[in-house]
């Protein structure tokens, strides 16, 4: 068996196991509805909505992924705002309600964070939940990550694979001074922008502005402006018949990905990673990045000049770089087998779902494996990369990725007022909502440059 075909098998096995099943979607919708009932019991949050964001909305979560939820305060048709102190107070009241109603375990209130967060574990399969207040920026970032998957479905597969690999090497934990999942997703985007031939354009060609600055005024207008801009530019990029097509497999892309960042620590001394321009940028040339006080700079393309990797420490950056380099050495070595590949690319709980002890060999599962009375999970999906998932009725938006299913809450008879990619998730089947649209855009200054939307 060739090295590439062996790696392809291992990568496919990992993706098959970590890709969410229908029950994983249903559980998270049920958690959202559970939490909504708790929020509705808090008098000071009367009229607030409960809306998911993060990897669940961008469809970049794994079977074991966390769930991010934002409590959006009522402000009529306009985008609501709240100061840090108000957010701390409201989350404190939610904490009391969770304790009173037994809404979860392992409650933790991180009040002094840049964005105050309330964390707990749901009693539904122990899914970890992060609660914030008025996180519309997080919702819109998540939607754009969902939308760009329309350009190339390998993006989702790469992000899932990179997350599992990073967890296996303990470099996917911002609390421990390594990358958070958002930074890892941006690294994949940056690699897709800089590989040859490129798969993604610079994100300024998708949304030519600082998105965070455009979340003002009437919410439906602001959301539709962003959606329409992204829709037009994504379709323009896809329809460009002159662009070269990168036809590498996910496994081949992953080899190149870890090789690209194998000298990350030395590059980070003078250069920052900028998915907005799709380039390594000189830190000294970017006035909005200075003063530079970070081990590595991975700019948020939708909230410039925020550094999504600000938690990465100098010591951990060295460890991260060494991990990239060691993995690249392994994947380009002729001395490898499926066990060594799997142990390098996946954490223990994923490995246990793929293999079972049998004379030390690697078992490629085709049915549930049983060892000492324990059933080893193996999804029986007809296609590796096309998971079934419940569909949620969404309002018609200008951008609907062709390969992306509609989400639908499988919990019949429950109600939801949670904003998703359109502004409202309707948990009751067959219900949808509509949003108005607006035109126009404010130019954004970045140093001496100015970008305007393409007409």
UniProtKB/TrEMBL annotation:
Residues 11-145 form the Poly(A) RNA polymerase mitochondrial-like central palm domain. One of its GO terms (biological process) is RNA 3'-end processing. Residues 411-424 have a biased composition (Low complexity). One of its GO terms (molecular function) is RNA uridylyltransferase activity. It holds the Pfam family MTPAP-like_central. Residues 401-410 have a biased composition (Polar residues). Residues 401-455 are annotated as: Disordered. Transmembrane segments: none annotated. This is Poly(A) RNA polymerase mitochondrial-like central palm domain-containing protein. It comes from Glycine max (Soybean). The gene is LOC100791794.
